[in-house]
Amino acid sequence: MTDIAAGHRRNLELKVRCSAADLDRVLVSLAEGDGPVPVSARQVDTYFGAPAGRLKLRVTGPIEPPGAGDAPDAAPGPGEGNASATALREGAELIAYRRPDDASGRWSAYELVPVPVGQADSLTAALALALGVTGRVVKVRTVVILGMTRVHLDRVEGQGTFIEVETVAADRPEGEVTAEFDAVVARLGLGKMAIVAGSYGDGA
Hints:
By secondary structure, the protein is α+β, with helices and mostly antiparallel strands. It is built from four helices and nine strands, in the order βαββαββαβββαβ. It has one domain: Beta Barrel (Hypothetical Protein Pfu-838710-001), CATH 2.40.320. The chain has helices at about 20-30, 85, 120-130, 175-190, and strands at about 10-20, 40-50, 55-60, 90-100, 105-115, 135-145, 150-155, 160-170, 195.
């Protein structure tokens, strides 16, 4: 990483486009046995015209009733009791991040700012006025936590189905982070799928 990442949180990330069948297969494999519990929610991301990197306001809430959206049939909603639920807690947050649009694993520097749900609309309006809105992405995201890695299984309105891996660096050596990241990518068979270099916001 360059000094852009200094003082910021970091992930090692990969996003791939997959078929709905592949997404379901990976989800079933992750949920087998005594593994982590998958948790799902609906997310709406509004992207703004940031002068550097990307900036979005995310609102996470319950999945709409069957027939009202693209929610998977048997995915539990967000709640307490497991790490996946904590990673997908209902609410709103402002997310700023910078990363290269590489068609491979890439390091991302990011910051998250929690936003009271009641202020999400007014903050969106203020940012839209100052920066302009560049896109809006609606998705159903299922999260599974493997160690320090978040696996996102996404059904994105108007774009399709994707799997995203984010391994949190924390204070660990980069070699340790890379080893965990590579192990998860190999376990899920993502190397055979089409890598996505950009953001969901690019296709909005």
